[in-house]
Design a protein that fits this description.
Layout: H1 2-34, H2 43-53, H3 60-70, H4 75-95, H5 103-113, H6 119-128, H7 137-140
Organism: Sediminibacillus albus
Transmembrane segments: 6-28
Keywords: Membrane, Transmembrane, Transmembrane helix
Length: 142
């Protein structure tokens, strides 16, 4: 009985250390994103800036498309992903001096903001929506 209990305790120690390590990793990443860059603003500050600056440019169809595109992201991380992607879309719209967020700008920003490892999920979602990916092929290669 004591031998089984000792294994149980050792297993729990490894599980807890592993979970704390994973949590610490994500907290550290968030900390790094909050650190100011050379311009005095952090990555998260810029994301918020672009989202706030372009709020009025989003239409209902573009917002619903964004929601559909982020739907494969696990719910726990969906808000963070939505903020990052919307910030990149807003940045592109402002750089191109657009008055409205269009589907083209949305998809371009989404591809750029999405990590390369997740591009296969993005391609699958775009195919489901019957969106031609040919104009964006070079963005997938960046």
């Amino acid at each position: 009985m004591t031998g089984g209990f000792a294994y149980f305790i050792v297993a729990w120690v490894f599980i807890l250390v592993g979970l704390m390590g994973i949590g610490g990793f994500f907290m550290f990443r968030k900390f790094l994103k909050r650190l100011p860059k050379e311009d005095g603003k952090s990555t998260l500050d810029w994301e918020e800036y672009y989202v706030n600056k372009t709020k009025h440019m989003w239409g209902k169809s573009e917002l619903s498309l964004l929601e559909e595109l982020v739907s494969p992201v696990p719910e726990l991380f969906r808000d963070v992903a939505r903020q990052k992607i919307a910030g990149k879309i807003g940045e592109i719209a402002l750089q191109k001096k657009r008055k409205k967020i269009t589907q083209d700008i949305l998809i371009e920003g989404y591809i750029i903001a999405t990590p390369k490892r997740d591009h296969k999920f993005l391609r699958k979602k775009l195919m489901e929506k019957e969106i031609d990916m040919e104009p964006y092929a070079d963005l997938f290669d960046q």
